[in-house]
Please model this.
Amino acid sequence: MDKLIITGGTQLSGELRISGAKNAALPVLAATLLCEEPVSIGNIPHLHDITTTMQLLGQMGIQLTIDEKMNIEVDSSTITKYEAPYDLVKTMRASILVLGPLLSRFGEANVSLPGGCAIGTRPVDIHIESLIKMGADIKVEAGYIHAKAGRLKGCKLVLEKVTVTGTENLLMAAVLAEGVTVIENAAKEPEVSDLALFLNKMGAKITGIDTDVLTIEGVSKLDAKNIHYDILPDRIETGTYLVAGAITRGKVKLKNTRPDTLDAVLDKLREAGATITTGDDWIELDMYGKRPKAVNIRTAPYPAFPTDMQAQFTAMNSIAEGVGIITETVFENRFMHVQEMQRMGADIQLESNTAICKGSEQLTGAPVMATDLRASASLVLAGLVAKGETLVDRIYHIDRGYDHIEEKLAQLGGTIKRIPK
Ligand code: EPZ
Model:
């Protein structure tokens, strides 16, 4: 397995272009299943999860062509089967996102249950129960979701929890359903809105975008009308590199991003002492020569502080001035980066879903192990500021969600290199 070796001590500085959002690209690619004509999608990030999604669609018989600018053209007219097999789903839980579109367009879907992952049990009960309410016949047998439906029927759905992919699956199910569907307690993450905007560009009738009540008037078919759709910039990649600038007391400017999708994160970076300036599509963070101050974080659904930025702020708190309390309310096991940081000298105490971080003057580089996507990124951040070398193992987690991380950090002056297996 590849490893990353990071030598700490450099203040990051310079400019970086942010890639398209992984968590928008995945549902938008799944949504191409809803349309008979070929669809062109741009600003696709160069990530392993994208490759997996292309394999997932390809093994259904769908034609995909990708160009050097990472534009993907998807033609679902050649589809031959409606299945998401275990061997692909086990590597990427988000494969569940084909369930809604397959059922809505073709009336059939056999999707492996995603199962849990390092950060939690990750159930999909809300996805399944809601599709049954829309008229689907669903059986879960031998690790697979076997779903069949005539034309799904629009109805009112009140989601008992805010679920991002649950909202996305139901949005995609509703666009071709008969009648009107109302999704209450819908997720408001920018990636959900990006999917809704893409669907509307293909002729769907969705209102309430950016709110927690989505109303979808079912149509008989979508029409790509030769559209091209560019994926929204990745707010979590943006936040990760902003923390990289802050933790190393540097100054970074991130371009091709969306500051308006990061209010909670920018507020916390300002509280930590950073000077943040923004334009329509760029953010500059200046923490030059300043030690970050500890901040308290409580994760929750958008627009509150994102759980996908929790590990990165745990890393920053571990070298900050003062004590920072981090409470994780979304997932039940999302502190696995803590024991790895403790091996680097971080003074963090865990009490159920809360991490009490007492900032140390200095961390010490050590061999550490990545456990999940954002935890891996947080260990790289800790390595950037630790004394000596940090070796991060199992970085396939990172490659799932960060486009060329070592090149981007090197562009900002970081000393980091990949050691092939
Ligand atoms: C999405 O996961 C993201 N993944 C995650 O990003 C992100 O952490 C998460 O949303 C929260 O923002 C993608 O978009 C591909 P949820 P998702 O359904 O949709 C419970 C990353 O690092 N729940 O919003 O799977 C669930 O257990 C990844 O990029 C149910 O109980 O998360 C959790 O406690 C990690 N039943 C809460 O809801 C359900 O049917 C939120 O989960 C569905 C969810």
Summary: Residues 4 and 418 are 4 Å apart (CA to CA). The chain is about 30% helix and 25% strand. The longest helix spans residues 235-247. Residues 23, 26, 94, 120, 122-127, 161, 163-166, 307-308, 330-331, 373-374, 401 surround EPZ (CB under 6 Å).
